[in-house]
Amino acid sequence: MWESVIGLEIHVQLNTKSKIFSPASTNFGAPQNTQACAIDLGMPGVLPVLNEEAVIMAIKFGIAVGSEILDNSIFARKNYFYPDLPKGYQISQYEIPIVSGGAMEIIINGKSKIINLTRAHLEEDAGKSIHDLYPNESAIDLNRAGTPLIEIVSEPEMENAEEAVQYLKNIHSLVQYLGISDGNMQEGSFRCDANISLKKKGSTKLGTRAEIKNINSFKYVESAINHEIERQAVILDRGDSVVQETRLYDPSKDETRSMRSKVEANDYRYFPDPDLLPVSISQELIEEIKSNMPELPSAKKTRFINQYGLSEYDTIILVSDRELSEYFENILKDSDLNPKMTANWIITEVLALAKKNYLSVKDYPVSSEDLKYLLSNVANETISSKQAKDVFERMWDNKENPRDIIENEGMKQISDVGELNKIVDNIIKNNYKSVEEYQSGKDKLLGFFVGQVMKETQGQGNPKIINQLLKEKLKK
Amino acid sequence: MNKETIIKISDLAKIDIKDDQIDDILTSLEKILNLVDEMNSVNTDNVTPMSHPLNLKQELRKDIVGASDERELFQKNNKHIDNGYYIVPKIID
User: Which one of A83, A97, A117, A128 is CB 3.0 to 4.6 Å from A93, fit for a cystine?
Assistant: First the structure.
């Protein structure tokens, strides 16, 4: 009887070298407070000066999602009394954000849906509070304070967790394509708040919403949203009302719980920051950025389908990650490898090992060059795909060179029919019982025979020929 | 404007106001707000809201790292530090 309404606020750390308003470095993982300068600390008398690159990156994002880029956007002070931003306020944008409107398409089960964006604005990140170092005190590391963020705000147009996750994944992929963020969720470069409310089925009146803060993985977004929907439904079902509040998702308990009660929004008491002037963005700058835009995921998807004849399913997997799509294309470059076979290899073999070891493309132990060499040997039938899989695992696990393995070990596929004939005859002779069972209808035993021949050839037999020979010889 | 509003505003602004000061503050604030009301009577329909008194544009900075590590200097005057961290009362939601 309830319909859920979801809007997301996504915080994306921009990968500038220096902070949004100070020349301190944004490098991740430096010793605590060594990258927090007087401006980040909010010392008296300092003056924030806006980083040009952060502005350019925000514009890039705006262009990519078809937004309006606003001239004269304004920075505002958002009152925020926590020690991870020692000024007592966060510099953000309120009345006039740099990016207004725009849209992102999501595709679920082949169906397209447009999620509209409200806005995207520039702001500074807060530092980190660490609560488990001291029993009665919190430790503050301000290295992150002042790191540039864009906050991307969607309209409340998603209806379930699946749509929200798809939207999030698309934005994640987009910011990586644009090269404006590393999108590293573990390090907090990409995190989101979800606004969730329920309304009566068919009603246009939105219910009271709760906001779940700082979710930093796709899986958590999905479970956090599903839990929150269920929690609100229980409250509404028993006739009570949902309290507008901020909640925290706790992955260890898989539940959301109340954080500070978020009183009326005007408690932030935004006002224009007198330290910063309106930001002028010329049409020439916008045009210049437009002319240097990289190929975006949607365009690449269409190209992959047309150029390589891949299925939509395979294409979506390859294109979702810019580096993965480049890995794929590097293998195909200057080679006559079959794109479909190459895509299959990446999706089944490479991604399986990558997922097992939680590796992103730049950390793959097997270079695209080496995989190209391996696949060429499969394509010209020097080795079987079974052998190739074994070689690939050794390349991945021990960083072995495929040339060494294939050449030094004299690895080659046995495609000699005469040689295979002898082995097949032998196997049939020695397994007369299984032959009888096969001939009386137990077709499944073919796999057993193939296995025996493979064993005899130490995995080097050409499975296509073995299959053919066996089927012929096992006929009554 | 009433007493509760004064207390709420002072809480938000982290300003400690004694009970016997509230009436005085209320009277002064009301005077100020009356003046604001008077300004509000001016028709501003065709006026762009001013976000800064200087009619200038923001200068942008090149994205260059130019700050060195001055942690020791900043922490010299702070008693509440440990191992490079700033130490504050436990704040947890």
Answer: A97
pLDDT beyond 80 at A338: yes
For A443, counting Cβ atoms within 10 Å of its Cβ (0-12 exposed, 13-18 middle, 19+ buried), the class is exposed
Q: How many CB atoms lie within 10 A of CB A28?
A: 16
The matching CATH number, chosen from 3.30.160, 1.10.8, 1.10.20, 1.10.287, for B1-38 is: 1.10.20
Cα of A295 to nearest chain B Cα, Å: 24
Domains of chain A, each with CATH number or no CATH: 2-286 (no CATH), 295-408 (no CATH), 417-474 (1.10.10.410)
**Host H or E run for residue A123:** strand A111-124
Residues A198 and A60: their CA atoms lie apart, in Å, by: 34
Euclidean distance between CA atoms B82 and A141, whole angstroms:
11
In contact, A21 and A50? CB cutoff 8 Å: yes
Closest to A14 in 3D by CA, of A161, A120, A136: A120
Q: What is the pLDDT of residues B17-58, one digit of tens each?
A: 999 999 999 999 999 999 999 999 999 999 988 888 888 999
Tell me which DSSP letter residue B14 carries: T
Question: With an 8 Å Cβ cutoff, are B86 and A248 in contact?
Answer: no
CA distance A437 to A450: 15
Residue A261 has pLDDT above 60, yes or no: no
Q: Using an 8 Å CB-CB cutoff, list chain A residues near B74.
A: 33, 36, 38, 41, 43
